[in-house]
Specification:
With about 250 residues, the protein is an alpha/beta fold. Helices cover about 45% and strands about 15% of the residues. The protein contains 8 helices and 7 strands. A 7-stranded parallel sheet has the order 3-2-1-4-5-6-7, sandwiched between helices. Helix 1 crosses helix 6, helix 3 runs parallel beside helix 4 and helix 7 crosses helix 8. The protein is globular and about 50 Å long. The mean pLDDT is about 95.
Length: about 250
């Protein structure tokens, strides 16, 4: 059965800005009982926590740090909804990048971060009968933008992991949702072409997917238009994307 947001206990990674902050606000609006806010610097969450200190709890959580993840799982033992929102984009091509350091960082956050958090919280989610994981990915999970070639690869890996996690956790009653928006009006997305989605569009449609049992969601009308074109002619969409080369 799909999970209702009302009375859920959520953990949002990358909660200090952009889509993460929008998730927190919308979870509160929909009646979540508690929301853990994960960020590398908990101090960056102070203004957000002050909005509802009774329901918001700040956590030090770098999704690439095993000790942080282990500690978060010890503290947030009542989580019923894990939202893997933290992401990193270096904006580099696969060959034109000076080295592979950015590509490795993108993979650490966008793939291994999802994998590590899901693995750490799977036993916690299993205890509640009906639970959910949301992985905030990108439409670049499905197509490749050469100007962000290694980021595209990390998001494709994230989608592959999401589908595997979904299959493995189905038996314990944990739904796993992949959210794949196009460009969003955030610090990370402002270098991408307009028009751009607003964070709340992404969040609202993604939480609707949790509540209705949709496994893979293309949030916002802009994303749905691209997804429709991709479904009709994936090679054409990829060909258009392939014209955008690294600077």
């Amino acid at each position: 059965m799909p999970q209702k947001i009302e009375n859920a206990v959520a953990l949002v990674t990358g909660a200090n800005r952009g889509i993460g902050r929008a998730f927190v606000s919308e979870l509160l609006r929909r009646g979540a009982k508690k929301v853990y806010l994960g960020a590398r610097d908990p101090g960056s969450l102070a203004d957000l926590v002050s909005l509802d200190p009774g329901r918001l709890v700040a956590l030090k959580l770098d999704v690439t740090n095993a000790a942080d993840i282990e500690e978060a799982a010890k503290v947030a033992t009542d989580v019923t909804l894990l939202i893997n929102n933290a992401g990193f984009a270096g904006g580099q091509g696969a060959i034109s990048a000076p080295d592979t350091s950015i590509a490795r960082q993108e993979m650490e956050v966008n793939y291994f971060g999802i994998l590590a958090l899901s693995k750490a919280f799977a036993p916690i989610l299993a205890k509640v009968g009906q639970s959910s994981i949301v992985n905030v990915l990108s439409f670049l999970s499905l197509v490749t933008l050469p100007a962000a070639g290694t980021y595209s690869a990390s998001k494709a890996a994230g989608l592959a992991a999401t589908r595997s996690i979904r299959a493995e956790l189905q038996g314990q009653g944990t739904d796993v949702v992949a959210s794949m928006p196009v460009q969003v009006e955030t610090d990370m997305g402002r270098s991408l072409p307009e028009p751009r989605l607003q964070p709340l569009e992404v969040v609202s449609d993604t939480l609707d997917a949790v509540e209705t049992g949709v496994e893979e969601v293309f949030p916002g009308e802009l994303t749905r238009n691209v997804a429709t074109a991709f479904a009709a002619d994936p090679k054409s969409v990829q060909a258009q994307m392939s014209t955008r080369l690294p600077a």
